[in-house]
Design a protein that fits this description.
alpha+beta; 12 strands; 43% helix
Amino acid sequence: MKVHLNELYNEKCSDVVISTTFSLYRCINDFVFPNKIIDKTQAEDVIKCVRFIIEKMDTKDEYKVISSDSLNILTQKILEESNLLPNTFNEKIKKDIIINGDSSITILVNFNSHLTFKAISPSFQIKDLCEKVFELEEYFADKLDFAFDDDIGYITPNIFYCGTGIEEGVLVSIPGIVATKRMSNLVVNFKNAGLTANGHYTNNAKDSMGGLYYIYNETSIGTNEQEQIFNFSNKMLELIYLEREMRLELYIKSKPKTSDMIIKAIAIAKTAKILELDEAIDIIFKINMGIDLNLVSNVSHEECNAVYYKVQVAHISYSLLDSIFKDFSAELVKIERAKIVNKFTYKIKLGNI
């Protein structure tokens, strides 16, 4: 069906949204599902087929093909931290990652489906993501016979993502909702709408660190593309508006406590010599909230969101490869994380506390 995207919301919302992902799963008729492949030549046949199509694309020079044979464990972890790769897949077969120059568009070959068309934005530009992915999928659909059933829709190895084959996900920081004790009701509301909200918890933690939640659709079966995309978008807008309201409410009702929390986070950020991941994330998103409340200036929401990725373990480990520390340890990663946060917070100016 033709999806009409003109009415979709297409704005940054970087105060709440860290990243948005839009994926389409497709499998090719007469090929074994990737998770069931035993004969490795079958996986290679899929790759040859896809690479041949890529070579015929007018925009082929915009893409780089990375074979799983050349993918080391550190690079894989960086791609997982960036939400470009799934956490689980058949590691025994050959795969390709076809990625454009700014890493916003990716085609995964032989991961969980034969083809996963994925677009990622560091904001809530859902309209742009949909347009990019559907354009790519349409190009491949003209040249490949995708597995499709008239009653079910597109067929994938995961029964929950048959139908439209769409998965939408948004990583958000919602400390206002968490602090005002509205998270449990929100989770139920999402569940009723077929969405899941997974918090970023550490051991023995009651609240998700940084108020971080990844929200995604549990299934793509039983509805059409238009309904699924718009329902998801509307739910995310409700969340964004509620978080903004709760941040303001939190500040108005408890200005001294909220101001103190943010000031202390900045003080720790500027002087820390060692930081655990959860500590760094907690600091980053307290600063992020401080921007909204005019308590923090000279840094942006986009910078906060970028630092979230920079302090991840694999990202830091990669940055240390070319350093003088050839045998870096977990302790060195924590030290480097503190330096990243130190540098980020150095230019912060405090507003009207």
